[in-house]
């Protein structure tokens, strides 16, 4: 093995003591789709608090320039401060960009909620902090474009929330980096107007231009998951008499309409999830509205929060109208092209029972550090200790779909790397619970199992809950 190919010289696997510009690596924290995160100290200043260094996995990755530029414009209590940026030179001479930011000793939002089971008032106050960051970004005509639970960190020392991962963000005059119709992001958090655009322009090359309302909708999805443990379902797009596509209503979790979610919290979630962007509450109005709703509930009420075991992994989300190519593009970005060879990319997912209510209110000031929290958003297997979200695994065999591929008479699936569970074929992959949800898979014994469908099959999974006979 050459020195250039040695693992310790790969940007995702730098050993403690490695030098990246003026920074010395203390330890590896996590790995995401686009970068690896390390805890570092500045050389010669080892007595000062550590920083978080995010290093690109691809040479000269332009997304890091965009992230650096936006962070350089931000000075906000709920956005990590940019400390430095530059390039790490590999032994082969390739340049890998990095950004160094304020270290946030925090826990990803859903993990935090799973551990501490916050009351509705606590949830609203945390979301208000995220809304303040959005308010600040939108005032600069900037957008985050990938807001989700994995990119929101709750600092364990004081419960301050930080918005992280600006690799998909955009600001005035920023260059376009991807040719797809939809910008980078996570499908489960996309707005109705984004999916309507794809349906209306599926035969054109016109690109969707997100607005501030897209970020607000993503925060609404986060709020819904936090309150109920389940994601809102876009439902079916329809055509009117003139042939125009429209969405009549979201399919919201039943728990959102129950007594488990107090009326002030429910109203705020519905305002953020309004189908029409012009009817959605703005980021400018959102922080005070969330604070008023929290005040109306008191600092520690007896209202229920979602089952922590269902935050957010024990549910499925249906995209019956998303094209296979659109979902395939996301899969290629999230888990690599090799997984596409294992999966028959099909539409649909199974419904899941509502989460059970909880009625506790505990101190939110403890937890384990996770750096920038990229492990929770990552589609790569973690080389470090399992996170809280990874340790909560289901031991129940996943139920197959009616149309799912089954092994042949010799007990073989369509691809040699697929596995057989419960009489059906699945693709096993090591991703986070949240990414498993997006892939419409099932967590089982710490791994994500995504259903496989026969190549060329035109039959969609039955989303009414019917299963393949056993």
TrEMBL record:
Residues 360-369 have a biased composition (Polar residues). Its EC number is 2.7.11.1. Residues 373-387 have a biased composition (Low complexity). PROSITE patterns: PROTEIN_KINASE_DOM. Residues 23-290 form the Protein kinase domain. The keyword Transmembrane does not apply. It comes from the Bacteria. The keyword Nucleus does not apply. Keywords: ATP-binding, Kinase, Nucleotide-binding, Transferase. Residues 353-396 are annotated as: Disordered. InterPro entries: Kinase-like_dom_sf (IPR011009), NEK_Ser/Thr_kinase (IPR050660), Prot_kinase_dom (IPR000719). One of its GO terms (molecular function) is protein serine/threonine kinase activity. CDD domains: STKc_PknB_like. Gene3D superfamilies: Phosphorylase Kinase, domain 1, Transferase(Phosphotransferase) domain 1. It holds the Pfam family Pkinase. PANTHER family: SERINE/THREONINE-PROTEIN KINASE NEK (PTHR43671), SERINE_THREONINE-PROTEIN KINASE NEK2 (PTHR43671:SF13). This is non-specific serine/threonine protein kinase.
């Amino acid at each position: 093995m050459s020195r250039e190919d040695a693992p310790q010289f790969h940007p995702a696997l730098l050993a403690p003591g490695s030098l990246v510009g003026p920074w010395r690596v203390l330890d590896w924290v996590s790995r995401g789709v686009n970068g690896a995160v390390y805890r570092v100290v500045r050389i010669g200043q080892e007595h000062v608090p550590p920083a978080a260094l995010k290093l690109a996995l691809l040479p000269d990755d332009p997304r890091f320039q965009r992230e650096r530029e936006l962070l350089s414009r931000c000075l906000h209590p709920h956005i990590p401060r940019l400390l430095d940026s530059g390039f790490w030179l590999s032994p082969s001479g390739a340049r890998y960009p990095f950004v160094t930011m304020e270290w946030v000793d925090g826990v990803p939002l859903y993990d935090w909620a799973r551990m501490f089971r916050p009351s509705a008032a606590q949830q609203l106050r945390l979301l208000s902090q995220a809304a303040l960051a959005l308010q600040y970004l939108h005032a600069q005509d900037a957008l985050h474009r990938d807001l989700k639970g994995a990119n929101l960190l709750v600092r364990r020392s004081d419960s301050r929330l930080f918005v992280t991962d600006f690799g998909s963000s955009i600001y005035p005059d920023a260059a376009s980096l991807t040719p797809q119709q939809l910008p980078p992001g996570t499908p489960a958090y996309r707005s109705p107007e984004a999916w309507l655009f794809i349906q209306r322009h599926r035969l054109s090359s016109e690109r969707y231009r997100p607005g501030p309302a897209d970020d607000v909708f993503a925060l609404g999805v986060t709020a819904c998951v936090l309150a109920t443990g389940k994601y809102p379902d876009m439902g079916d797009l329809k055509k009117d008499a003139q042939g125009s596509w429209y969405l009549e209503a979201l399919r919201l979790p039943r728990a959102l309409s129950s007594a488990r979610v107090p009326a002030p919290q429910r109203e705020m979630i519905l305002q953020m999830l309004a189908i029409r962007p012009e009817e959605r509450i703005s980021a400018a109005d959102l922080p005070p509205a969330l604070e008023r709703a929290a005040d109306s509930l008191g600092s520690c009420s007896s209202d229920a929060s979602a089952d922590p075991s269902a935050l957010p992994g024990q549910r499925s989300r249906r995209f019956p109208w998303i094209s296979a190519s659109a979902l395939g593009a996301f899969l290629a970005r999230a888990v690599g092209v090799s997984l596409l060879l294992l999966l028959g990319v099909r539409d649909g997912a199974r419904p899941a029972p509502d989460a059970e209510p909880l009625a506790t209110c505990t101190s939110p000031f403890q937890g384990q550090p996770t750096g920038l929290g990229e492990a929770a958003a990552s589609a790569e297997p973690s080389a470090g200790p399992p996170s809280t979200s990874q340790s909560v695994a289901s031991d129940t065999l996943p139920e197959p779909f009616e149309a799912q591929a089954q092994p042949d008479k010799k007990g073989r699936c369509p691809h040699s790397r697929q596995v057989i569970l419960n009489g059906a074929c699945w693709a096993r992959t090591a991703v986070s619970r949240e990414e498993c949800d997006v892939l419409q898979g099932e967590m089982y014994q710490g791994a994500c199992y995504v259903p496989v469908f026969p190549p060329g099959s035109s039959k969609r999974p039955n989303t009414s809950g019917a299963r393949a006979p056993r």
